[in-house]
Design a protein that fits this description.
The structure holds 2 protein chains of 2 kinds. By secondary structure, chain A is mainly β. Helices cover about 0% and strands about 50% of the residues of chain A. Chain A is built from no helices and 11 strands. In chain A, strands 2, 4, 5, 6, 9, 10 and 11 form a 7-stranded mixed sheet that branches. The relative contact order of chain A is 0.34. By secondary structure, chain B is mainly β. Chain B is built from no helices and 11 strands. In chain B, strands 2, 4, 5, 9, 10 and 11 form a 6-stranded mixed sheet that branches. The chains are: A mainly beta, B mainly beta. Chains A and B meet through strand 5 and strand 10 of A and strand 4, strand 5, strand 9 and strand 10 of B.
């Protein structure tokens, strides 16, 4: 069990640029989640995958955000035309199933200049 | 709307003392609860969970208590150590739903 891995750990970009983050879940976990966390707050749910199917999206996930999990393993989260308000920590988590603990990676910290 | 919250934003304890971190939740339909520990620059780390059919669960040096009557959750840490210093979050979930809701967190500081 190598844990949830996220890449990159830090991303600095100019407003208006596109960014993509990657998450590699724990290998035997079929559920994968994306969260956003701002300073001093708890994580906020963005979206969830069961294997390769994206089954739920939060209203926080505007049309500039898209997530994929093409083969049911790793996932990517893309933000297009980044805005200042997108600056946050983006966390990925995985679990074996519903009612099971979600295990988090160490996140990608996004800073928009 | 319904949300998870915490009673205290900060808690300072002496090394070796026991710590109690509290959490209030308002969604009576929530049936699964987790405590996470988050250190600076890292993701939340799972500590312990509890389902609504239980009122107490123990782990290594930690105990979670659930009082469904008053919708209250607590995390007790025995013999608190400097390595326990972190932000602690409670999170609630309805099994079958996928959006786990987190509170804002309590920062625990352990004084040597």
């Amino acid at each position: 069990d190598t844990g949830v891995s996220q890449d990159p750990r830090h991303k600095i970009t100019k407003r208006g640029q596109n960014v993509t983050f990657r998450c590699d879940p724990i290998s035997e976990h079929n559920r994968l989640y994306w969260y956003r966390q701002t300073l001093g707050q708890g994580p906020e749910f963005l979206t969830y995958f069961q294997n390769e199917a994206q089954l739920e999206k939060s209203r926080l996930l505007s049309d500039r955000f898209s997530a994929e999990r093409p083969k049911g393993s790793f996932s990517t989260l893309e933000i297009q035309r980044t805005e200042q308000g997108d600056s946050a920590m983006y966390l990925c988590a995985s679990s074996r199933g519903g009612g099971q603990p979600q295990h988090f990676g160490d996140g990608t910290r996004l800073s928009i200049l | 709307g319904e949300s998870v919250g915490l009673h205290l934003p900060t808690l300072s304890v002496q090394e070796g003392d026991n710590s109690i971190i509290n959490c209030a939740y308002s969604n009576s339909a929530s049936d699964y609860f987790i405590w996470y520990k988050q250190e600076s620059g890292k993701g939340p780390q799972f500590i312990i969970d509890i389902r609504s059919n239980m009122d107490k669960r123990q782990g290594q040096r930690v105990t979670v208590l659930l009082n469904k009557t008053v919708k209250h959750l607590s995390l007790q840490i025995a013999a608190t150590q400097p390595g326990d210093s972190a932000v602690y979050f409670c999170a609630e979930n309805i099994i079958g739903n996928n959006d786990m809701r987190f509170g804002a967190g309590t920062r625990l500081t352990v004084k040597p």
